[in-house]
Amino acid sequence: MKKQKIVLLALTIMLSSLLTLAVYSSASAQAYPNKRVNVIVGFAAGGPTDIIARGILPILQEKIGVGIGITNMPGASGATAADNVMRTGKDGYTLFFGSETMSLWQVMDIMNLAPKDFIPVMLVSQAIPVLAVPPDSKYKTADELLKVAVANPRQLRLATAGPGTVPHVSGMILDKELAAKFTYVPFQGGRPAITAVMGSQVDATIEMIQSMSENYRAKQLNILASFTNEPIKGLEEIPALGKLYPKLASYLPYGPYFGLFVTKDVPAEVVTALEKGMTEALKDPRWVEYARKFFLLPIELGGAKARDFIDKWTSKSTWAAFEAGGTKKSPAEFGIPKP
């Protein structure tokens, strides 16, 4: 009898332990997300990456049912923010809103991180870069400006959002194909570069139309050309560089990609939940209107399609920058094939 009581007591303790473990496991395995999410943007407020993030993320938070905080962490062409996410985001509650700079960190010798170190939850849009000058600039056309950049190498100061960004690589493409040489003045994001050109601190900038359309309409700067083969819909008065210089046509349209990323270590259910939320957010009429207002080129690519898109973009951009002499390392060192 005593032995039976001991066995019964042991079984009771075991059952109690199993029930406690089940309750704990159930609580810890609540469907993602079950608390606030923080998204880190690698550039200053007001730049194209920030503008796009603040257009889509408030809609995403409604779709996934928790609040989303946005933190701007400029520096090293977005690499500072990415490194922070890489160290703190393995649980899926610290995310990275990234851009094309990811594709050039390695060849620019900024950081040994690359797109392959992250999972692209969803690429949401591309943007359109344009060449702009101060409102009182003596250069009234792109041809006038570029002729000076050819005849007087490095005389003109061109503001960019930092090394390896689309504005920087765009300038190097002009150098490679037209022999137009600038002195690059890097800023921690597109908005500071635009502010510099509006204040006549530099001779020109290449930045996204998304960040300067209002300044353009207010005549606070002048846009000389777009990095496209056809004029921007709604801004047809701005000449397309592909028409002005046919030898540039094969590079154009040349614009950055933007999207939401997580570290490659996050659980699969996190990626699934975020991808579902982003898919719904991108179909929301508020986002559609937002994209139209800021002249964004909407895309909706997740998973393998996003990876393929990024790989092709990386190949095209890194080799263009390398062949123009604008990178410290060859793409071949990192196994990036020529396009």
Map the helices and strands.
Elements: H1 2-28, E1 37-41, H2 48-64, E2 68-72, H3 79-88, E3 94-99, E4 118-126, E5 129-133, H4 142-151, E6 157-160, H5 166-178, E7 183-186, H6 190-198, E8 204-208, H7 209-217, E9 222-226, H8 241-244, E10 257-263, H9 268-282, H10 285-293, E11 297-301, H11 303-323
Parallel strand pairs: 1-2, 1-3, 6-7, 6-8
Antiparallel strand pairs: 3-10, 4-10, 4-11, 5-8, 5-9
Helix pairs in contact: 2-9, 2-10, 5-11
Tell me about this structure.
The protein has 339 residues and is of the alpha/beta class. The strands form 2 sheets. It has a 6-stranded mixed β-sheet with strand order 2-1-3-10-4-11, with helices on both faces. α2 crosses α9 and α2 runs antiparallel to α10. The protein is 42% helix and 18% strand.
| Average pLDDT | 90
Tally of strands: 11
- Strand order in space, largest sheet: 2-1-3-10-4-11
- Major sheet details: 6 strands, mixed
Q: What would you report as the Rg, rounded to the nearest angstrom?
A: 24 Å
> What percentage of amino acids are in beta strands?
15-25%
**Unreliable segments (pLDDT under 50, ≥5 consecutive)?**
7-11, 17-28
State the secondary-structure class.
Answer: alpha/beta
Shape: globular
Proportion of helical residues: 40-55%
H/E element order: HEHEHEEEHEHEHEHEHEHHEH
N-to-C CA distance:
81 Å
Give the count of helical stretches.
Answer: 11
